[in-house]
Write a structure and sequence with these properties.
Length: 139
């Protein structure tokens, strides 16, 4: 894949991630959400996580670093300064895995309580991704 093709894919991933992230950002700390609303925010988190690691992967691809999994992308993204808080990203991945492999309302509620922290990391990733794209699209 050429650099231009990678950048085209990156632009699409940034736009899709931003739309999904904007729906997750509607979460307000301190609001007493119903179980249905919490489930909706949890689903938005899961979707954002999938999009976020693929966004990281696209930036790494452009830089010649090949990854195949979320864990590899997080590790290399941290080493490449795409993301800053490695431990929080690992926690995000573990939360996503908990939600994907079992349904336990108590575990889901624990993940819900962490979503505000995760939103900040998604915000930083979005800004860094946009900056990376802007710096490289003109090359």
């Amino acid at each position: 894949m050429t650099d231009q093709e990678i950048l085209s894919r990156l632009e699409i991933r940034i736009n899709v991630f931003e739309k999904a992230f904007n729906s997750l950002k509607e979460l307000d700390e301190g609001v007493d959400y119903s179980d249905l609303e919490k489930a909706g925010f949890i689903q938005r988190f899961e979707f954002c996580f999938e999009l976020s690691w693929k966004l990281i992967k696209s930036i790494l691809d452009y830089n010649g670093i090949s990854t195949k999994s979320p864990r590899d992308s997080i590790k290399e993204g941290l080493a490449s300064d795409i993301i800053d808080e490695g431990d929080l990203w690992v926690d995000m991945q573990e939360s996503k895995n908990i939600l994907s492999h079992t349904y336990d309302q108590e575990k889901s509620l624990k993940v819900f309580e962490k979503l505000i922290q995760y939103i900040g990391e998604y915000e930083k990733l979005l800004e860094k991704s946009k900056q990376f794209y802007a710096e490289n699209r003109s090359n």
